[in-house]
Amino acid sequence: MTIPPANTDPAASPSGHHRAGPREQAVGRALAVVLTLLTIFGPLSMDVYLPVLPALTTELRAATSAAQLTVTACLLGLGLGQAAAGPLSDRLGRRRPLLAGVLAYILTSTACALSPAIEPLIAARFVQGLAGGVGIVIAQAAGRDLYSGGKLVRFYGHLTVIAGLAAVIGPVIGGQLASVTDWRGIFLVLSAIGALILLACLVIFRETLPAHDRVTGGLTRTGRDFRRLIGDRTFLGVVLISAFVSAALFAYLAGATYVLQGIYGLSPQGYAVAFGLNSLGFMVFGFAAGRLSERWSEKGTLLIGLVLCLLGAGGLLATAVLALPLTAVILSLFTMVSGVAATSPPTTSLALANYPDIAGTASSLLGLARFACGGLAAPLVGLGGADNAVPLGLVTLVSAGLAMSTYAMTIRLRPRDRQPSRAHR
Fold first, then answer.
1. Helix boundaries (H) for 24-94
2. Where are the domains of the chain?
3. Is 397 a residue whose pLDDT tops 90?
4. Could you give the CA distance from residue 160 to residue 153 in angstroms, rounded to a whole number?
5. Which of 1.20.1250.20, 1.10.3720.10, 1.25.40.10, 3.40.640.10 would CATH assign to domain 27-210?
6. How far apart are alpha carbons 365 and 361 in whole angstroms?
């Protein structure tokens, strides 16, 4: 595996300063913890809130479809928030947009709690997603500022683990909170979590992008950067791969509860166990993929993840068509989710490794593709009704197949990719 060192950008920085000297910076444990905490905005915003969605629907006298829009609005906001915050952080630095985003998250979470009807809640959830997306994209971009080579891949592996952990504990926290407070109280808890993260950022997070490394220009420059990224075959390939595997993951999140509880009759506690098992696989395989990418090959690790995802999705469709027992569906889901996790560290590293000058912009495209494709795929699993698992199998298999096809067309696994770079061991 050969990754260009972070200090070898062949071009001068957009501000006219040629990048010389080591780009990688010393990173304390406290800062690393803060960066990983920023990745929990997405999972917490979604998972903690889901257990109280029925109660919210009843209290606000809303249609179920309207209540579901609060989920869609947040997903859309998370994607668009990253698309806006990434380029902005390349121009202004990481710290100011981050602090503004976390503050906005606190305020919009409070606005959600105070919403008198479903319409303002939908709007507030959208803005809450926009604000939460800032933390996610800046965590990735700041990681690119601070790390290079194997350390960069390992960092993205840690982000995957934390996201998986948040997905595990999110529903548990939401369920426990639902026993002592209502949905408004849960949004206030999210606001309090945002306040704690804001305090940590104020005390610990220092600017990771020096002024002389920032880009200049407005929307025209951003448009040129987007065209530069999309014109890169490898970057475009890994972004599309990440988008397609995210579609499979979001389809699982949207449809698994109906399959496991509605078709196979699991209790809520049984579903929590199955969900926790899959999230454990997500964490373990995400961590392992980060280490494997560092020590062996990013592209090879990505291929392993895609194979697992494809096998799991194929098993899921076969389970639905042949009405196989519960063990088969749980094993298929575990394999697919673990495969998705294994693709995350290598895709993120491959997308950002060669763009230290516009890491925020590159990360924003990656995040937008993940959430947009995931948000589009999630509703498709319900087309066959709550008692039909075939749509879930089809959506996940098509998504995994598209990801594998994209890999074959855009990513080449050459023999030299198997050898780790000594400079970054």
1. 29-37, 41-47, 53-59, 64-92
2. 27-210, 231-420
3. yes
4. 11
5. 1.20.1250.20
6. 6
Tokens 């609005």 correspond to what residue? 73
Coil, helix or strand at residue 60: coil
Could you give the CA distance from residue 327 to residue 1 in angstroms, rounded to a whole number? 38
First-to-last alpha carbon distance for the chain, in angstroms, is 10
pTM for this model (two decimals):
0.72
Number of other residues whose CB lies within 10 A of the CB of residue 197? 21
Residues 6+ apart with CB under 8 A from 269: none
Write the Ramachandran bin of 413: left for phi over 0, alpha for psi from -120 to 50, otherwise beta: beta
Q: Could you give the dihedral angle defined by the CA atoms of residues 195, 196, 197 and 200, in that order, rounded to the nearest 10 degrees?
A: 120
- Our CA angle for 148, 167, 377, nearest 5°, is 90
Would you say how long the chain is, in residues?
A: 425
Residue 163 tokens read as 């996201």
Check if 27-210 and 231-420 are the same fold.
yes
Six-digit token pair at 79? 């994607």
| Sequence-separated (6 or more) residues with CB below 8 Å from residue 154 | 147, 290, 291, 294, 345
Tokens coding 414: 């050459």
For 68-115, how does the pLDDT look when each residue is reduced to its tens digit (9 = 90+)?
788 778 888 888 888 888 888 888 888 999 999 999 999 999 999 999
In this structure, what is the dihedral angle of CA atoms 350, 356, 357, 362, given to the nearest 10 degrees? 30
What is the pLDDT, as a whole number, of residue 15?
40
With the CA atoms of 209, 204, 196 and 199 taken in that order, what torsion angle do they form, in degrees rounded to the nearest 10? -90
Residue 303 in 3-state DSSP?
helix
Place of tokens 């408004």: 184
Nearest CA among 72, 77, 71, 78 for reference residue 42:
78
